[in-house]
Each structure stands twice: as structure tokens, then as C-alpha cells.
Design goal:
The complex is a heterodimer of chains A (619) and B (234).
Chain A lengths: L2 H5 L9 H9 L1 H4 L4 H9 L53 H4 L4 E13 L8 E7 L40 E4 L4 E7 L15 E4 L15 E2 L2 E2 L9 E6 L6 H4 L11 E6 L5 H6 L3 E7 L23 E11 L5 E2 L12 E4 L2 E2 L2 E5 L2 E10 L4 E6 L8 E6 L2 E10 L2 E3 L4 E7 L8 E8 L10 E15 L21 H6 L2 E9 L2 E4 L11 E4 L2 E9 L6 E5 L4 E8 L2 E3 L8 E2 L1 E4 L5 E9 L4 E7 L2 H5 L3 E7 L1
Parallel strand pairs in A: 1-4, 3-10, 11-16, 15-23, 24-27, 26-35
Antiparallel strand pairs in A: 1-2, 4-8, 5-9, 6-7, 9-10, 11-12, 11-13, 13-14, 16-21, 17-20, 17-22, 18-19, 18-21, 22-23, 24-25, 27-33, 28-32, 28-34, 29-30, 29-31, 29-33, 34-35
Chain B lengths: L1 H19 L3 H11 L21 E4 L4 E3 H5 L4 E7 L7 H15 L7 E7 L7 H11 L5 E5 L2 H10 L7 H5 L7 E6 L4 E6 L4 H11 L26
Parallel strand pairs in B: 3-4, 4-5
Antiparallel strand pairs in B: 1-2, 1-5, 3-6, 6-7
Helix pairs in contact in B: 4-8
The chains are: A mainly beta (619), B alpha/beta (234).
């Protein structure tokens, strides 16, 4: 049975294998004829049939990642205004381009379908949507030439799929502060696609200090045959300007305030109404940012450099929850108002893979890529004994000081955690596992912890490093800009209530209005935002675009809790626990660029159901 | 907060039940007409995750159609759930959909169809729905649908107008105020909240309609004349 059949077939008469299985699985639902009782029983059937069994530890992740390579130049060269004539979609003008884009590094990133991705050898090869960092393919002479775009010639013919270079997650960027990037993102997704997912993209670089028009605003989705409501024209491609500056340009000059550096960022689709299925289909990738302090070189002669474990011992891992039908094909129910909670955990797109490591320190960058699962990840030995690690960065931001001897990473969708694990403590042949101990049966909330959890990644210590490990974890990492009591007292307070009304996920009782800002803030100003949950039925991972912020206080169900050490850095996703009377207060500045941005629940099904607000930064 | 909602719920329910009195005569006749399920509907249809149910529905014009085969399969559709006696959020959502209908212009009934399915099929006979439709001055391509209660229930659940909280879900007067928007040919589905501005609902419809290039509402844009996707069987 093909993927298309599995995904489509709404109401198709002949019952397929997948359909039969689902029917069998939902027999309990079907058997309740009376209206009232069927309503009751229907309400309790939040679950879907379990994914079929997989073959654990059958596939290996690459021993090291291969970063995307820049291209010498882009043809045509990037322009401040959209190059409509060459087929670029009708985006807004790049802000501060002349000032900040001198001598940029160029990349080409193509969103494409890989027709034969293998999540696990027990499941058939199947289509995913991913990214290719290959600037051009033999079937496609150049990124832009003759693309027509503009709706003139109608949708262009989709190039034949090239499986080998399309990965989900996509290629990892190694970017550096002070080296601006222009990435030409080309949409080559199949425009005639049938089933869940929509073949338009609006790519958000989470959570870089990016001008609005390059931030992946939800209404900025594009393809050769489609212009999102906040674009003026369709187009096959668009240039994203990622200036790689620290926040604080206006205040500090140069490239901003180095205390505001981010490290572990990720790019992902943010198309309005379709982020959950598009991310589920694979449109994610890492974007790592380095500077003189966190230089990505553990042998850096610069005395100021931290010399944290560096490539190839710096390894990003994205965790994503997915569910598969009886045929082993990726499943998503487009009609379930609560989405689909995955029961398989993909690590870099593979279910229960193996990572082989050398006996030395590694920097592991963990990302919860969603769509909906919360994790409590621990590193354990085969007897389920917890093994400690050092926590160095939350949401990609290095903490002022490392937190040693942590044993659990407790994170919600879109949160990140960088940790350092010293594998020299283990003899060759040692097998370790990352386990998820978080219990969750619904997308909207989670429960407690299990004892042993589910193994999601196996790590095998299989060799000595070829040379001595000179990396270290210094006692201080990146200083933070102090926030004074006066600044906090002077900041206007905005309250955002994450609630539910009329069967919809709301913020302050309202639903996402694409065309109107719910908050308008002045460039250069600072505010205190309060995220509030007054119900015990749900949790929300709250994400603010554009700026990192600081958690000032944490009240959970009326109890003021101390902010844990690892949450005392800068963050951009706040996991808002169950209420009532749960309030997180954060301090945030709005700097350097203007335009429209969003703040939203990063549980992707809630985001797609309009639990989002637009905020504008004005000059 | 929850307690308050439940109080409101009970009040609404009483109001609704009181309202039913007037229509009681018609109700008896309607139930007699409809509650004889044909062979295909002998059993309550089960929900198949990810798929559109295909029960027989009756339009406000009295036509019997299959929901998926006749109304969805090759069409771009916007689906709401309502009921004739609704005084809560339905009037506002209906008003919004009327504005969407106006924005759609000639595309209504040719490329895009709006269906309003009753939440109370026991009460909302085709005649009741016809009167309701006439109150709103709906144009071609907008159908009000009723049917056997089990079939309507399968549609309600299959289209995702439901809540995992059984108390909320059991209360039909507190239904999800959502518009289910889909493209039958592409099997691509999303939703828009019932009370966002009509231009945003339209842009979501335009997003999902693969023949539309510009998703934003642009009053000055000339409309491209083209073949419709075929009407509703008569």
C-alpha cells in the first residue's frame, strides 16, 4: 500500500489494509449506538491504534554530522527588495541590509520530498519532507533561472526526487556571529501533494535575532503557485537574511551585545494552520551559532575561548514524536482537534537508533522538535542507573555557569538543552541509553514519571579518541546582562492568559488575528510579560519569537517556586505548567528591528488552532 | 472557571429544551421520516481516524446526499456546526460566514461550498433548516444539513467538532466554534476559528484551494473566469 493511499482515501470505498486495522482498533467506538452513551464513549477515545513494533538499535546515526557548505555566490545576487522578476516571492524589504549584510555567507536550502526515508527498518521506506543543502542538482540547472515564479507560467513541473541529499532533519548550519548569512530557500515540495501537510513554507529560524521579513511569519508562506496573505506575490524561492548579530545593536553598536548570544538554534516550517503536519513530515534542521567565546574549537588558542567539546564531538539531537499506521506509514489525523500524540520517538529522524561515541567529552545539543510530546530524558546504563551529565545551555543559550551532575532533561516542544557528557568514564563496549520517563497520553498535558522509561537512543562507547581530549567545561560560561530591580519595576506589564473558550485554544480569550497586532511595543523598550494558566487540564510551551528573555518568577498552582538553576539563563520557550493560579513572569527587551512577530503555544496542534498572538515592534 | 461554564451550560440546555416545545409537532413527523436507517446505516458508523465519514445527509431542500461522495470528494468546503435555536455563538459565526460568502463572490457554489450541519438533528428537520437558511439569505452553494442522529454524530466526531473532556463534549450547546476547511481532492484539511475576521477565514480557504494563487483578500483583483469543480448532484 502506498503512502498516498494511507494518507488520502478519505471515504474511498474499497477498504485498504490500513483502514481495516483502524476499524478494528476503533471497534469499541463503533459499538456504542445510543446517542448519549456514544457521546460519552466517543469523548474518551483520545487515543489512536499503537504504532507497529520496530526493530530497535538496527540503524546507526552518523558518527559525526556534516554541516551544510556555503556557495560562492547566488545567481541572481540577493537584493534588498524581493526580486520578483527572477521568481522570488513578494516578501518585505530586508531591514538594515546595507549596514549588516556586507560580504555575507551564501547558502542554498531546498525543501523537497524524499520519497524513500527509512524511520526504522521495520517500516517501509516512505515519503518525508526534508531539506537539501545541495545548491543545484543535475535535474535542475540553477536555483532561480527560468523559474517563472510569479504565477505567470503556472506551477512549474516538480523536479524528479533526489533521495540521497534530502534529509529530515535537514543539514546543520555552522554560523558565526559577525558573519551575516543570506540563505536562498527554494520550495520544491510537490505542489500536487495529496494528504496531510501543505506544500508551502515559511521558515522560522528559532530563535535568532532576525528582522521580521526573514523571521518566517506564519502568513508569509510561499510556493511558485501560492502567496501567503502577508506576501504580495508567489514565488519558487525567497532569500532569508539572517544577520547573525547579537541583540543590542542600537545600544552597543558593532554587532551588538555578546552577552545576548544564542548557540543552538533550529530552522523549521511555520506555515499558518499547517505547522504541525509540515514539521511532522520533517521540515526541521539545526542552526548552530558560534562566536569568539563559544568558538566551536576546543583547541582554540584564544585564551578567552571556552573550548567546549567541538565538532565532531559536538552533536545535535532532535527528538520528535510520531505515530505510524498498521502498515508502518507516518500517520496524522487532520480532523482530531487535539492532533496526534506520537508513540514513537524519532531521534534525528530514526526510531531507536544507535550513536557510537569515543571515550571523551561530547557536547550533545538536545532539541524537543515536537509536535506535542514532553520529555523527561535521562542517560542510564543497562541497569537503568542514572548517569550524570553537565547542563550548559538552556534554549541554546549558555548559562552563566554550568550545572553539574544533572540527571534529567525535562523539556517541552521547542525547548533545547545542551549538555556535556564525559564518556571517558566508561570502558570501551559500554552501552548507555537515553530514556524518556515522562508519562503522557494526551497532547494537551502530561503526567508523572515512570521508573525506567522508554529507551529512545542507544549510545555505544566504542573507541578511544584519536588524540587527547583538550576540551573543557569552564566554571563560568557566558555572563548575563544584569537586570536591575528598577528596570523591572519600570517595565510595563502585559498579561497573557492561556485558556480555552468555546472549544478553542485562546490567549486572553482571543484567537490568532493575522492582520492585527495584539501588542505593539516600541523598539528599544522592555516589558514584563506574564504567562498565566488557570486550568489544571492543560499545559502550554509558550514561545516568543525574536528575543530571548529572563524568567523572573515562577508560581505554580499558587505556590511560588524558586527558579531552578538551569532556567536562570535566557530562554525563548517557557513551559507553562498546569494551573490554576500558575504564573510565569519574564523580562524581555525589544531591540534593533521593527515589524511583525508572533508569540504562541509551541504545542504545534495548539499553534495551528490559532493559539498565537501577533506583536509588532514599532520605531 | 469550569464550574461557571457548567452553570451556564445547564441554563442553556433549559432554554433550548423550552424552545423545542413549539416545534414538537413537526418534530414527531420528522423523526418518523428519518429514523429508519437504510441498510448502509444499519449500524452506527465508527470513526475511522483521518477519514471523512460518508453518511446520508438531508439538505434543507430535502435532498438526500452522501456526505463525502456528493459534497466533499472533489470540492473545497467550509463546514460549520450549528442549530436553528442556537442563540450563543452561532449567530455571530453565521454572520461571519455570510461575510465570507460575500467575499467569495462568484466562487460560491462553483469552487467553494459552505455546509452548516445541525447539532440537533432530532429537532432540525429540513423544513426547520430551510426556514433558518431563509432567515440568513444564504446563496447557492450553501447547504444546511441534517440526518439520522447517529449519522450526524458520526459527522460531528469525524470532522473534529468534539472535545476530549466528556462533560464539554456531551453538551451540544457548548460546541467548538470552529469552521472545518478542506480540499476533498487533495485530502487536505485545516480549520479556522468561527469568530476570526472573515478575511482570515477567506485566506485559509484560499490557502487550501489549490487553484488560488493569492490567499489575501484583494477586492480589486480581477477574478479569473474558469470552470467550476462541478455542482452538487440534484
Amino acid at each position: 500500500m502506498s503512502a498516498q493511499e494511507t494518507e488520502h482515501a478519505s471515504g474511498q470505498a474499497p477498504a485498504s489494509t490500513g483502514r481495516r486495522t483502524f476499524l478494528k482498533g476503533s471497534a469499541a467506538i463503533a459499538a456504542a449506538p445510543a446517542v448519549l452513551t456514544s457521546r460519552k464513549s466517543g469523548a474518551q477515545t483520545a487515543g489512536f491504534p499503537a504504532s507497529p513494533p520496530v526493530q530497535p538499535w538496527a540503524e546507526e546515526l552518523p558518527a559525526q554530522i556534516t554541516p551544510i557548505q556555503p556557495v560562492a555566490s547566488l545567481d541572481p545576487a540577493p537584493t534588498v527588495s524581493a526580486n520578483l522578476a527572477a521568481g522570488e516571492c513578494g516578501r518585505g524589504d530586508h531591514q538594515r541590509f546595507a549596514e549588516l549584510a556586507s560580504n555575507p555567507v551564501h547558502y542554498v536550502l531546498r525543501a523537497r520530498e524524499n520519497p524513500a526515508w527509512v524511520f526504522n527498518p521495520a517500516y517501509p521506506p516512505q515519503p518525508v519532507w526534508g531539506w537539501s543543502g545541495t545548491p543545484a542538482t543535475s535535474t535542475d540547472s540553477g536555483p532561480t533561472k527560468g523559474k517563472g515564479g510569479g504565477g505567470k507560467g503556472g506551477p512549474k513541473k516538480n523536479p524528479p526526487p533526489v533521495a540521497s541529499d534530502v534529509t529530515a532533519p535537514g543539514p546543520t548550519f555552522f554560523a558565526r556571529y559577525g558573519q551575516p548569512v543570506v540563505v536562498r530557500i527554494i520550495n520544491e515540495l510537490p505542489q500536487n501533494h495529496v494528504g496531510f501537510g501543505s506544500p508551502e513554507i515559511s521558515t522560522h529560524l528559532h530563535n535568532a535575532h532576525t528582522p521580521s521579513e526573514s523571521d518566517g511569519f506564519p502568513g508569509d508562506y510561499f510556493s511558485a503557485s501560492k502567496a501567503g496573505p502577508t506576501l504580495t506575490m508567489p514565488g519558487a524561492w525567497r532569500d532569508h537574511f539572517w544577520p547573525n548579530v547579537y541583540a543590542g545593536l542600537d545600544e552597543f553598536g558593532g554587532i551588538g551585545d555578546p552577552r545576548e548570544a544564542l548557540g543552538t538554534c533550529w530552522y523549521h516550517d511555520h506555515t499558518m494552520d499547517f505547522t504541525a503536519p509540515n514539521v511532522l513530515k520533517g521540515l526541521v534542521g539545526f542552526y548552530l551559532l558560534f562566536d569568539d567565546l563559544d568558538s566551536g574549537d576546543e583547541r582554540d588558542p584564544n585564551p578567552a575561548a571556552l573550548r567546549l567539546p567541538s565538532h565532531p564531538y559536538d552533536y545535535p539531537l532532535v527528538f520528535g514524536d510520531k505515530r505510524f499506521d498498521a502498515d508502518g506509514m507516518l500517520f496524522y489525523d487532520q480532523f482530531d482537534p487535539d492532533g496526534v500524540l506520537g508513540d514513537q520517538v524519532c531521534v534525528n529522524g530514526k526510531i531507536q537508533p544507535v550513536l557510537r561515541v569515543a571515550r571523551r567529552k561530547y557536547r550533545l545539543r538536545l532539541l524537543n522538535g515536537g509536535p506535542s510530546r514532553f520529555y523527561a530524558l535521562s542517560l542510564v546504563d543497562p541497569n537503568f542507573v542514572l548517569r550524570p551529565f553537565t547542563y550548559i545551555a538552556n534554549d541554546g543559550n549558555l548559562l552563566p555557569a554550568p550545572v553539574a551532575n544533572m540527571t534529567t532533561i525535562d523539556f517541552g516542544p521547542a525547548e533545547r538543552a545542551d549538555i556535556v557528557v564525559d564518556f571517558s568514564a566508561y570502558p570501551i563496549g559500554t552501552e548507555l541509553y537515553f530514556v524518556n520517563r515522562r508519562i503522557q497520553t494526551e497532547t494537551r498535558r502530561y503526567d508523572g514519571l515512570t521508573g525506567t522509561g522508554t529507551r529512545v537512543l542507544k549510545i555505544v562507547v566504542d573507541r578511544n579518541p584519536p588524540e587527547a581530549d583538550l576540551s573543557r567545561v569552564p566554571a563560568t560560561l557566558r555572563a548575563m546582562r544584569p537586570v536591575s530591580a528598577e528596570e523591572i519595576a519600570a517595565a510595563p506589564v502585559r498579561r497573557w492568559d492561556f485558556d480555552r473558550s468555546n472549544g478553542q485554544w485562546t490567549v486572553n480569550g482571543k484567537l490568532f488575528d493575522l492582520f492585527r497586532a495584539s501588542a505593539s511595543v516600541r523598539r528599544g523598550s522592555a516589558e514584563v510579560w506574564e504567562f498565566v494558566n488557570n486550568d489544571d487540564g492543560w499545559v502550554h510551551p509558550v514561545h516568543m519569537h525574536f528575543e530571548e528573555s529572563r524568567l523572573l518568577s515562577k508560581r505554580v498552582q499558587g505556590v511560588d517556586l524558586p527558579v531552578p538553576l538551569h532556567e536562570r539563563g535566557r530562554k525563548d520557550v517557557y513551559h507553562l505548567p498546569r494551573g490554576p493560579n500558575t504564573v510565569l513572569r519574564v523580562f524581555v527587551r525589544f531591540r534593533d528591528f521593527t515589524g511583525k512577530y508572533v508569540m504562541h503555544c509551541h504545542n504545534l496542534i495548539h499553534e495551528d488552532h490559532a493559539m498565537m498572538v501577533r506583536f509588532d515592534i514599532t520605531s | 472557571m469550569k464550574t461557571h461554564d457548567m452553570d451556564a451550560t445547564r441554563q442553556d440546555r433549559r432554554a433550548v429544551l423550552a424552545g423545542f416545545g413549539a416545534a414538537a409537532l413537526g418534530l414527531l413527523a420528522w423523526q418518523g421520516a428519518i429514523l429508519k436507517p437504510g441498510p448502509a446505516q444499519a449500524k452506527a458508523p465508527g470513526r475511522v481516524p483521518g477519514r471523512i465519514p460518508n453518511p446520508t445527509v438531508i439538505t434543507h431542500e430535502g435532498k438526500a446526499l452522501r456526505f463525502h461522495d456528493d459534497l466533499v470528494r472533489d470540492k473545497v468546503v467550509a463546514i460549520s456546526m450549528t442549530y436553528a435555536q442556537c442563540t450563543a455563538s452561532c449567530p455571530a459565526t453565521m454572520g461571519n460566514l455570510l461575510r465570507v460568502q460575500k467575499l467569495l463572490g462568484e466562487r460560491m457554489g462553483r469552487d467553494v461550498f459552505i455546509y452548516s450541519i445541525t447539532l440537533f438533528p432530532e429537532v432540525d428537520s429540513p423544513q426547520v433548516l430551510k426556514a433558518y437558511a431563509e432567515k440568513f439569505d444564504v446563496g447557492p452553494g450553501w447547504l444546511f444539513l441534517t440526518g439520522a442522529p447517529d449519522d450526524i454524530e458520526s459527522l460531528r466526531r469525524g470532522l473534529g467538532f468534539r472535545d476530549p473532556d466528556p462533560v464539554v463534549d456531551a453538551n451540544r450547546t457548548q460546541h467548538a466554534n470552529m469552521i472545518r476547511i478542506g480540499n476533498g481532492a487533495r485530502d487536505r484539511w485545516t480549520m479556522a476559528p468561527g469568530l476570526v475576521r472573515p478575511e482570515q477565514i477567506l485566506s485559509t480557504i484560499n490557502h487550501i484551494d489549490h487553484s488560488v494563487v493569492h490567499t489575501a483578500y484583494a477586492p480589486s483583483a480581477p477574478e479569473t473566469p474558469r470552470q467550476g469543480r462541478g455542482g452538487i448532484p440534484t
